[in-house]
Amino acid sequence: MAEVETASEAPVLEVEDLKKHFPIQSGMLKRTIGHVYAVDGVSFSVGRGKTLGLVGESGCGKSTVGRTAMRLLEPTDGKIKVSGTDVTNLSKTELRPYRRQMQIIFQDPFSSLNPRMTAGEIVKEPLYIHNIGDDAEREEMTKALFDRVGLRQSQMQNYPHQFSGGQRQRIGIARALALNPSLIVGDEPVSALDVSIQAQVINLMMDLQEERDMAYLFIAHDLAVVEHISDEVAVMYLGRIVEKADKKTLFTNPLHPYTEALLSAAPIPDPTIRREKKILQGDVPSPINPPKGCHFHTRCPYAEERCKVEEPVLQNKGNGHIVACHLR
Ligand code: SF4
């Protein structure tokens, strides 16, 4: 089995100017008549043992970023590096050892688990695929994974429909852990769970991160969840990152008007604290035909003429706090 060579101190995952445009085809000849600009020039990195939270409204492209960064979707353009190695153009075979390093947990654990396989088979399957251990060793590894994620070994014989939502997400986590990855992409991993169960699953993920020094790319629309688990947070709007900063800076000193609006709409657990609500007008524009200039100008309360024609670039405001806005 080929092992991944890692450049020392290199981030576990780096993406540079990543783009994913989906063609829109029409007619018998399937002519391309346009594109959905789902991801349109996104750059970030995630260091070993760190969590980058990726937030934004639904349809902003955050899930597509996660899947494209793992090359579950082929990028239209840009560069993807895993532990310092450019994997953007590697063949499927060449990609295999890197795939092993990167695992994904999906939002809906029910539809992401094969209903005809037992929970034990589901968790064990990646070990078969990557030819790790013999039957007895795989069985022992699977038992240990069940123990670690808080499931009983006797539940290995059960099928996904026999578990609760939280337990199914634990199966998804155990399966992701089987290959001992250095990065897990969590694609809204707790959004479908009750709030009390969300906290248990998040706490499990944080404990596992500390034990295994794993990195997370944590994709969510719920800011409270992202605030809890992240070291850094990136805010996406219509296929682009509009602001990124360490968690504390982003939550206490948001600079982009879109981040301000998202934060003002998030509930605060302390009833004595009041926050001025900045309600966003209108819907998110279509990624097929995004507004010219600043993508956010159709909803921004501060928009000026310049915003309609000139695209703001990301600027560093110090300490890695970057923002794309003409006025900030
Ligand atoms: Fe608003 Fe203009 Fe800043 Fe865009 S560039 S966020 S429209 S003020």
Written overview of the protein:
With 328 residues, the chain is of the alpha/beta class. It has a single domain (13-101, 181-323), classed as P-loop containing nucleotide triphosphate hydrolases (Rossmann fold). It contains eleven helices and twelve strands. The protein has helices spanning 62-69, 92-101, 109-112, 119-129, 135-148, 165-177, 195-212, 223-229, 247-252, 257-265, 305-309, and strands at residues 13-26, 31-46, 51-55, 77-82, 85-86, 102-105, 183-187, 215-220, 232-237, 240-246, 315-316, 322-323. An eight-stranded mixed beta sheet has the order 6-7-8-3-9-10-12-11, sandwiched between helices. Strand 7, helix 7 and strand 8 (215-220) form a beta-alpha-beta unit. Helix 6 (165-177) packs parallel to helix 7. The longest helix is centred in the middle third of the chain and has 18 residues, at 195-212. It binds iron/sulfur cluster. Iron/sulfur cluster (SF4) binds next to loops. Iron/sulfur cluster binds at residues 256-257, 294, 296-297, 300, 302-303, 307, 312, 325-327.
